Amino acid sequence: MIPNNSPWIKQLNRTRPVVPLDKNVRADVAIVGGGIAGVVTAFFTLRDTDKTVVLLEASKVAHGATGHNAGQLASYFERPIWELVEEFGRELVIEGQRSVESAWILLDQIVAEAKIKTPSYKFTGYAGLSSFDQVVRHLKNNRYRVDHDLLPEAIMLAEHWDRLADIPQEFKDLYTVAPQADLLKLLETNNTDYIASLSYQKGCMNSALFVEELVGYLLATYKDRFSLYEGSPVKTVTLAQDSAELEVLIHTVECARVVLCTNGFEHFTIKNTAGPDIDTNFHHLVNGRIGYMSGYIQPLDQPPVAISYFPKTNELSADPTGESYFYLTRRPHEHEGKNSYNLVCTGGPEKVLPNGAEYIREDACSDDSKNAIHEFLRSSYAKHPGEEVEYSFCWHGLMGYTPNGVRCIGPEPCNKVLLYNLGCNGVGILPSLFGGLRISRFLKGEHVEPSIFDPHDQRVELGI
Ligand SMILES: Cc1cc2nc3c(=O)[nH]c(=O)nc-3n(C[C@H](O)[C@H](O)[C@H](O)COP(=O)(O)OP(=O)(O)OC[C@H]3O[C@@H](n4cnc5c(N)ncnc54)[C@H](O)[C@@H]3O)c2cc1C
Q: Tell me: domain 7-69+207-285+404-461, CATH 3.50.50.60, correct?
């Protein structure tokens, strides 16, 4: 059995003791969840308002999805833009995409203001496509990007691909044609199934290390306005007209606003004494999916990169209607006290967490997933060292998927005392930064423009 062993957690080297809530406390704002969403929400709230903030984390800061992800910095939705446009309309979607892209700057701001030392790398990322449908789907997406002044993807198609002539005329200005060998080189593969490559801005960082450093900065900078309690699971959130009370261990937290940054809605009940019931089936609409990853160490002889591979078949996905893919990152990594290594991480396999089932972080890694990743790398990643490779890391983490594939950021329509910044939908690092800033604007009392991230009224959602 291989334990859940994440390289990001291993790098933490934390010395801060876990301090659980040991008394009743009051704060203007209670944030539930100490992942990147909760800690960044605390950062912007403390920076941009004069409010007191208490952060409550059930286990340890950054040990949730933030410590068990692929660590890719990416600023796209997992759903195609044109599909979102059909649901939300053009303006809101374009603005939503711009908001997610604004997180690149927010990350730089946080790093500069909090003097974060965690390295982050920015580079061109690539994706390999292997079917006509995938190519058309991405071209259609690019049409929206180009027509609405969003950052376009550079798309290259193989010149001898037998479906080249079938690409609809409306997309002709959106791609270039090149020898297949050129695009296979970008994709670092010898697998000739790949007939198209996309390039787009990407990056990577250890989001757990970033969060651990950021929370240290908040504790040091806002001694009189910020407190953190770990090992402090919230059991109940009781909402009144203008306040909330949280039940945590044997104590209570009284606050004016409460922000859920829990990734999903797990492990607690919400009682709304000042409006319609919120603790209904609605919570089960955020679906859990377990993502599995493996990583191995290599000499530091290649630059950092992020490459996604969309194979011909869709066997990997937890969602058979969705696009499934393997994603690989390579980045410098400190190993055995030396900086002369790269870490190559690959993920792809996912499993749906059945409704009501509990995700157990301590569960062993699945052999099936490990074998699937190994088989993929062996057959498709040209720089893979082969059978003798030793995977130093093997890990899994929980992702929260909202029904519409869009992060949920903002006040609960049934009681505005409660706010959300959650639902990663696969890509959650940069969106949670933007979410943190947006939440701080609500807390400040600003007029915040409507967006695709606004929480839906559960009564409409459930048809009641
Ligand atoms: C395998 C995998 C790969 C991924 N790859 C990428 C990627 O490459 N790029 C990307 O952008 N995103 C990726 N993601 C998603 C990304 O990691 C997440 O969106 C992001 O880390 C989520 O941060 P969060 O703060 O919302 O959630 P988390 O980090 O999960 O934090 C939520 C916290 O809430 C706490 N909590 C829950 N319930 C309670 C309670 N009742 N009381 C107190 N605390 C509670 C949990 O203990 C947890 O620490 C990936 C995720 C996984 C699992």
A: yes
